[in-house]
Amino acid sequence: MAHILITGGAGFIGSHLTPALLAEGHSVRILDTLSPQIHGELPEGAEWLRSTKGLEFIRGSVTSREDLARAIDGVDAIVHLASETGTGQSMYEISRYAHENVQGTAELCQVLATTPGHTVGRVLLSSSRSVYGEGAYVRPSDGLRMTPGARTAAALKAHKWDPVCPQTGEKLDLVPTREDDRTAPSSIYAATKLMQEDLLRITADSTGVGYGILRLQNVYGEGQSLKNPYTGILSIFSTRIRRGLDLPIFEDGTESRDFVHVSDVAAAFARALATPEPVNTTINVGYGTATSVMDVATSLSRAFGAEPNTRITGEYRLGDIRHNAADTTRLRELLGHTPQVNLQDGLNRFAAWVSTQELPEDQLAKANDELKARNMMG
Fold this sequence. Notes:
The structure is a single chain. By secondary structure, the chain is an alpha/beta fold. The chain has a single domain (3-373), classed as Rossmann fold (3-Layer(aba) Sandwich). 37% of the residues lie in helices and 16% in strands. The protein is built from 14 helices and 16 strands. It has helices at 12-23, 36-39, 48-51, 65-72, 87-90, 94-114, 153-157, 188-207, 233-242, 262-274, 293-303, 329-335, 343-354, 364-373; strands spanning 3-7, 27-32, 55-59, 77-80, 122-128, 137-138, 145-146, 173-174, 210-216, 218-220, 247-249, 256-257, 259-261, 282-285, 291-292, 310-312. The strands form five sheets. Strands 3-2-1-4-5-9-14 form a seven-stranded parallel sheet, with helices on both faces. A three-stranded antiparallel sheet has the order 7-6-8, with no helix packed on it. Strand 1, helix 1 and strand 2 (27-32) form a beta-alpha-beta unit. The N and C termini lie far apart (52 Å).
């Protein structure tokens, strides 16, 4: 059995991956800052970090070389989850996102490259589908596959929501995005995730450490932060449903995402740790189906036993993509994993868990006001 370090392991994904790995007989060490934006000003519900058998917790940061050097001592593999994750917030917190995501990964790579005799055999990175930008489409007139550029501020202001072919101007049809499709980040967050990928891949190739890059789709489920208004549309909606408020939906409501339950994400990481040899490639982790924001808002409302109270706002955020669906062929073929939790079952589980939690403040207006004040939202 292996000794595994999970950076950012006190967060949403780590709280599911850790028990899964412990159940397989591994020992786990977590390095986490316990960020107030995610955990609250005083860490709540963090007792498990000290009381779980087989788990060692280090409160520290991936931006600290000293903390990392202590954290990697004696471990066989690393799952690098530590990251700032808010797409909208990243557009005006540029330095912070670059420092936490890029510099933190650079420090990890530095430690791996310069620590003689370390025992780390593979590193898995939690990346994001956002690195694709708009992702893959086909041109209806002839079936040509293409990856359009980011939607411009002018197009969004004119409510021209859908990507179009730059040659013919025709609306494009979404297809599942493959790992070898072009990357074209449209937000600072996405740019930092792609830089993380390059840093890890180049370091791993040059040092002989095995690696795997898991590009996660929209992860949701029990345990995600209900306090962070900058990321997690289902958390934001759940608070408003419980407070009897309407659900404001950007653009025209037909924008779509590939929602994947956190248990399937944890299973993918566990499979990537268990392969006889490191995969040394990039793998999409999603359910493989695009669901509109309007549909998911309606389904979530019903999971709470409430009548849907949605409102199309016509507003938009710079950096958002229009649609999202993953090609999951590699996930099945390389990791032997087919997602098990369909969206309705996952939303029912999520709603049941949320209903047991303290009702947080609704901070959506505050987050949106910050974007508007910086001309990042229209």
